[in-house]
What does this fold into?
Amino acid sequence: MRRRPAPYLWTMTTHADPALTVYYDGACPLCAAEIRLYRRAEGAERVAWVDVGAEGPAELGSGLTREAARARFHVRRPDGALVSGAAGFAALWAVLPGWRGLARLASLPGVTALGEVAYRLFLPLRPWIARLVPAGARCDKACG
It folds into this structure.
């Protein structure tokens, strides 16, 4: 029996068990633009897309709160493991055929660690970078 998603979850998943669940801040124009890119990719229908900027419960499954999900990128693997930051992007890239080259690159020793350093440097700049998104809203109240 297929479970119906909660009303606050907007998902393109057609499978009862998604290959990955992506938590993203749809209120952040930069995040929303990036997720639109991934959602158009081949294989995106196998991913559950959860907009944590939408109203709904503060808890999004084991180990993830809305506040944490808005502050940085998170994905949940089918086994329930939660990964975030650069490791989360690598997990997403691995399930999207057009992005698997980046996933392979991220699997090389040290690459994900360097990606995490870059991601942590990027996070405080996200509200200002979001202003560069065409027709993007300001990120003052969003963006973690």
